[in-house]
What we know:
Blueprint: E1 2-4, H1 16-22, H2 36-47, E2 66-72, E3 81-86, E4 91-97, H3 101-107, H4 112-116, E5 119-125, H5 128-134, H6 137-159, E6 163-164, H7 172-179, E7 184-192
Antiparallel strand pairs: 1-4, 2-3, 2-5, 3-4, 5-7, 6-7
Amino acid sequence: MEVKLPEPKIKGEVSLEEAIYKRKSIRRYASEPLTLGELSQVLWAAYGMNIWGKRTSPSAGARYPFEVYTVVSSVEGLEPGLYHYDGKEHVLKLVRKEDLREKLARACLRQKCVATAPVNIVIVAHYERTTTRYGERGIRYVHIDAGHMGQNIYLQATALGLGTVAVGAFRDEEVKKVIDVEGDPLYIFPLGRPAE
């Protein structure tokens, strides 16, 4: 199953400067679902396409070593499941129908933010895309690229009034078992409305 996402907005109500000023890690989320438009906008900011036909986050040598997955639990118009984000087409492709949030939270050392977020964005690295050109140093470049993407997620979430936090504390092999896709999970971003 393929879900065409709403077109991303290229102008918002919050300036870049304001988003930078207000950006912070948020670990507590309200129980209400996200809209498909909100998820669409954050995914586009993370790894969609810009006006130049390039990804929205920079990559060393334009190697783009990531695949982006979403563990969806509560998004209006989407069934719970694991989805792959195709940034070139701006669509979500269903990988598996199943609410994986609790399993993912256990693999993330039982972090409550992962267990309660309506969506968890999982960044999966394919190191070979970069190391085939840059050798061992390519590993560093992949990690730098992940930071670029993470900041885009933070700033877009902030601009939309949503909350996120960068999660790097997890058991790699357990996360791999939960999502069961090729590549190495590198970064997880729970996403939701901040709890009051």
